[in-house]
């Protein structure tokens, strides 16, 4: 309750809109002119709305972003605050490994090498998780990882996501976070991280771009900006120190070309 009140204050705060508009300006040049841009989406309004509560299937949001961009952290928060079910594709795969299933060993090797597990495995795991969830709204964290995943999911389930959130975060920040994540993961070492970043850029960004061209993807600027600002001692309150990015009301359509997106990512 307190969190929601704080967040609505934050949404209205001049500080957040100033930072938002400066970020928007910063990225403005990267955005090509599209005749029809999807309307900006108020994430908080969406999370608290009744979207997805009256159909035969849940409201589905894909949550994409580079490794370490904060998908898992923020999904847990959104799920507990707004009643979403949180389906993490990576966790589903890791469960297979720890359950010692036939395919577990093979999955472990793929994850260790930072590659993408074949669609027939992941789509099935994600599909079952969605089906067994009783929630009206589901966050699918870290899937689809590539166009092939996306096409297989849409074909097998006959479903498209209602929304795609793209967590934007510079590479150096992602690397720093992964190296200090301390979850004992076989893929959080610098060699595998480099491979994962390459896979993200070459295979996962096209999925974001696909949904962006269909007006479904929305970029969420990562809180690292607020964290940096906060160290400057600007008008900030303690809860800014928490990685609480989804309340930071910056959301605008993503529409950048591959070349432009790599510029974005290679910026330090
Ligand atoms: N906005 C943030 N600012 C700083 N650290 C963060 C932020 N979001 C997540 N983290 C930290 O970064 C690491 C990676 O986050 P995680 O949510 O696991 O990312 P992903 O699921 O995208 O790989 C975790 O240790 C998490 O605590
Ligand atoms: O749909 C998916 C999700 C994950 N992975 C594999 O699982 C690893 C870890 O995924 P997770 O989403 O947990 O990593 P994160 O991006 O959250 O750090 C990835 O690098 C891939 O090797 C995959 O192949 N397909
Ligand atoms: Mg994760």
From TrEMBL:
Domain of life: Eukaryota
Organism: Aegilops tauschii subsp. strangulata (Goatgrass)
Catalytic reaction equation(s): UMP + ATP = UDP + ADP
Species classification: Eukaryota, Viridiplantae, Streptophyta, Embryophyta, Tracheophyta
Function: Catalyzes the reversible transfer of the terminal phosphate group between ATP and AMP. Plays an important role in cellular energy homeostasis and in adenine nucleotide metabolism.
Family statement: Belongs to the adenylate kinase family.
E.C. numbers: 2.7.4.3
InterPro entries (UniProt xref): Adenylat/UMP-CMP_kin (IPR000850), Adenylat_kinase_CS (IPR033690), P-loop_NTPase (IPR027417), UMP_CMP_kinase (IPR006266)
Protein known as: adenylate kinase
Coiled-coil features, chain-numbered ranges: none
GO biological process terms held by the UniProt record: 'de novo' pyrimidine nucleobase biosynthetic process; pyrimidine nucleotide biosynthetic process
Keywords: ATP-binding, Cytoplasm, Kinase, Nucleotide-binding, Nucleus, Pyrimidine biosynthesis, Transferase
PROSITE patterns: ADENYLATE_KINASE
GO molecular function: AMP kinase activity; ATP binding
Keyword Nucleus recorded: yes
